[in-house]
Amino acid sequence: MKRLFYVLIVSCCVHVPGAWAETRADEDTVLVTWRDLQLALSDYEAALQGIPEVDRFSFQFNLQDITKLLNAMLLSRTLAAEGRKLGLDKDPVIRKEMALAAERVLASRRLDAFERAIKIPDLTAAAEERYRVKSGEFMVPEQVHASHVLVATKARSDEEARARAEEVRGKALAGADFAALAKEFSDDPSAGNNQGDLGTFARGRMVKPFEDAAFALEKPGDISPPVKSPFGYHVIKLHKKLPAWQRSFDQVKAVLLEELSKKYVTTEKNRYMEAITTDKSIDLNKSAIAKLRKEMPKIPDELLMPDSKGAAAPAPGK
């Protein structure tokens, strides 16, 4: 309870300077009152805008994340209040910093508004062309569904492990239930839960010797000879083999349109911003700007690393 109260206090302290008195009590729910500060629901909602939109929805279901945000808000608001009492907000440079911070918020919201106003054209033809040119990206690779029994070599000799794997294979070929064999014989820690079933996988997921052996099996029910990998000997059973297949345009159309729409919006935003920064009417005071560049200070000779004779070490290449 103390922690939650502290968390709520946190959020009461972070807000735009001077804005606390602007919200009327009958218009904005006060969440926390602490000392002479208040945290309102609008403060929290404003802070949410600082969270990337892609994360904002899920954020609101996680009390731990909300707590961290509120703690940060409390710290910020408290320090800002102390800064005002010290008169720091009267410092000309700090006032400029505050004004620039406000401008950054407004600039960000302006871009948001610009993005919402963008009219996205029909990109179906572009999506079809994208699909045609790079159809290989939409190929589903060959996959297998397999189970295995692992006989590890860590606690036994290579010969003992191979003999045990051969025993397992013999039982499997004789008709023993493979899941039961996995539970009894496998040294794979997950076998107790999955009975050796590895699910469906494509190439590149398993170690090479295991992968080659699994994909070499042809028919459901086939049992591999013992296959050695860095983990030991595997006996593999094939459940299903799925050939590679091509997704149709209709199956990937929605994904392609979303990808192209995002690219279109990004391009339009970049074009809009570039038009501002490259406008030929911008007047640069080049001489004043050049003076902003500081010269690197010269290092005194006595601070240079001496060589073995006590003299300053020569510069590289000398």
Q: How would you sum up this structure in a few lines?
A:
Helix content is 49%, strand content 14%.
SSE series: HEEHHHHHEEHHHEHEEEHH
Give the distance, in angstroms, between the N- and C-terminal Cα atoms: 69 Å
Judged by helices, strands and strand pairing, the structural class is alpha+beta
Task: Give the CATH architecture of the domain at 142-243.
Answer: Roll
Keywords:
alpha+beta; two-stranded antiparallel sheet; disordered N terminus; Chitinase A, domain 3; four-stranded antiparallel beta sheet; 12 helices; 318 residues
Could you explain the architecture of this structure?
The structure is a single chain. By secondary structure, the protein is of the alpha+beta class. It has helices at residues 2-11, 41-48, 53-59, 63-85, 92-117, 124-133, 158-173, 178-185, 191-194, 208-216, 249-277, 286-290; strands at residues 30-34, 37-40, 139-140, 143-152, 197-202, 227-229, 232-242, 245-246. Helix content is 49%, strand content 14%. Strand 6 and strand 7 (232-242) form a beta hairpin. The N and C termini lie far apart (69 Å). The model is unreliable at 1-25 (pLDDT under 50). Among the domains are: 2-86, no CATH class; 142-243, Roll (Chitinase A, domain 3), CATH 3.10.50.40. The strands form three sheets. It has a four-stranded antiparallel β-sheet, sandwiched between helices. It has a two-stranded antiparallel sheet with strand order 1-2. The protein contains twelve helices and eight strands. The chain is elongated. The longest helix has 29 residues, at 249-277. Helix 1 (2-11) crosses helix 4.
